[in-house]
Amino acid sequence: MSLSTLTQLSNLISQSVATLERVAVETNTSLPDLDNPLLSDESDALRINAVAIEAARVIAAAGRQLAALTMRPKDYVFEVVFGAHLAASLRVCIESNATEMLRAAGPEPQGLHANKIAEENNMDGDKLARIMRHLATYHIYREVKPNTFANNRLSATLDTHKPVSELFSDPDNKYTGLTEAFPAAAAWTRFTPGRINLWAKSACNLWDTLKDPKAGFSNEIIDSPFHRTLGIDVPFHRWFEDPAQHKLRDLFGIAIKGFAEMNPPGTILDAFPWTSLQEDSVVVDIGGGIGAAALQLARAHPHLRIVVQDLPGVVADAQKLWETQYAGVLQSGRVIFQGHDFFQPQPSQEASVFLLRYIVHNWSDTYAQKILMHLPAAATPSTALVVVDHVLPYACPPTAVPSDVQALSASLDTAPPPLLPNYGSANALGHLLDSCMLVSLNAQERNIGHLQRLLGSCGWRLEEVVRIEGASGYYYPLRAVPV
Ligand SMILES: C[S@@+](CC[C@H](N)C(=O)[O-])C[C@H]1O[C@@H](n2cnc3c(N)ncnc32)[C@H](O)[C@@H]1O
């Protein structure tokens, strides 16, 4: 007798829970504990052990699929309808420094009354308590007794670890100098710029943009819902170069670091066999921003020379930052920053590796091609191109996708049935970013067939899809060589 989907999902959960418990014993690491905000990456088997990572992903995917299967359909759909309200509640807690105030309230689990957080922020305590309860219902914060809340495993990710007094006396620098930058990524994604809820408003304008006879079919960045909402007719990155936007640029640089931290530490180190490069080989980080990837590379591989290229304003900001973060390396000349527009011919002719991290996904095909096409002319036969973005799977069964994509997808993770092959919403980061790219830049994450065609049309042959243990949302660096 064939098992029901319910039983199959429940069996997958039981088997994976047993695996997780076994790994925790074998590796002397802790099982996840929702109430514990103090678990570090090092003590969390879910972050460091490949078997545990996979077991956890299956549990989460099966749990969510079970909810989709068993909840009343209208209840389930209404949660999505109200998704923006959950994000709005989170914004309130981020802006009011609730997480930091709960941390400062002392050892868990006594928590802090919402009135105390509200008082500090000049707000209504009853309203704040309702907002925090909404989040606690989704396991972000914990209501330890009526109207009194504590941090937990999820809310703790929003902690800037700064003294509360500093956050209130110097709110503009809340995200400056963070060691762990995830709070900046969370803040950036919803609230910037100028503290109006611009990204959220832009997302709401998606339908209007798609239905616009011109913008809806356009490949131009200025036709995105974000540009429409902000009312600017220059591309975002150019607008960003305006000195008036320097605070926003600073936050963006930190936010990008935060996005990178969503994947295991050092993913950039696994994206290419850097040790195989000879002493003084040149890595050109194109659109390298403030040099977040370059910093990791420079620290781990002192035999490399690194050129970080970006727009002039970003490069100037980045250099100041590096003076404090990695004193001396700029003076030594081992890392140099270079103002360069990647739509112009590539000036560096001696690169062993061209690195494009979070660049190709910022542009529609028309513009991604312009960036990529400049590189073969500057490459040697042994130059490699490393493109780091998310590689999106389809949500349909692998057998239903075109055969060329099937072959290329062989190295991408596929969930066991009856799970959605892409692990569903338990692994949705790539799709969330795809939506974000569409809304903000009229750009996209791509599937592997699309990326292969794009690279091929610009003189690059896709050689390898690199699997990074523990990365989420189909984060797969690609390696290509000149044709
Ligand atoms: C999403 S960020 C990625 C930064 C960096 N690669 C990283 O992974 O941390 C995109 C970068 O592209 C840069 N950029 C945008 N347009 C550019 C252009 N025309 N020439 C050079 N860089 C550009 C932006 O300034 C920004 O730093």
Helix residue percentage: 40-55%
C-alpha end-to-end distance? 54 Å
% residues in beta strands: 5-15%
CATH topology of the largest domain: Rossmann fold
In CATH, the homologous superfamily of the largest domain goes by the name Vaccinia Virus protein VP39
Main traits of this protein?
single chain, 483 residues, alpha/beta, Arc Repressor Mutant, subunit A, 4 domains, 7-stranded mixed sheet, 3-stranded antiparallel sheet, binds S-adenosylmethionine
Characterise the protein shown here.
There is one protein chain. The protein has 483 residues and is α/β, with parallel strands linked by helices. It has 4 domains: 5-76, no CATH class; 82-174, Arc Repressor Mutant, subunit A, CATH 1.10.10; 183-260, no CATH class; 267-482, Vaccinia Virus protein VP39 (Rossmann fold). Helix content is 46%, strand content 10%. The chain has helices spanning 5-27, 45-48, 50-70, 73-81, 83-95, 98-104, 114-121, 125-137, 164-169, 182-191, 198-204, 206-211, 225-230, 236-241, 246-260, 267-270, 292-300, 312-325, 329-332, 365-373, 403-408, 429-441, 448-456, and strands spanning 112-113, 142-145, 148-150, 282-286, 305-310, 335-339, 351-357, 384-388, 460-465, 478-482. The strands form 2 sheets. A 7-stranded mixed sheet has the order 6-5-4-7-8-10-9, with helices on both faces. Strands 1-3-2 form a 3-stranded antiparallel sheet. Strand 4, helix 17 (292-300) and strand 5 form a beta-alpha-beta unit. Helix 1 (5-27) packs antiparallel against helix 3 (50-70). The N and C termini lie far apart (54 Å). It binds S-adenosylmethionine (SAM). S-adenosylmethionine binds next to helix 17.
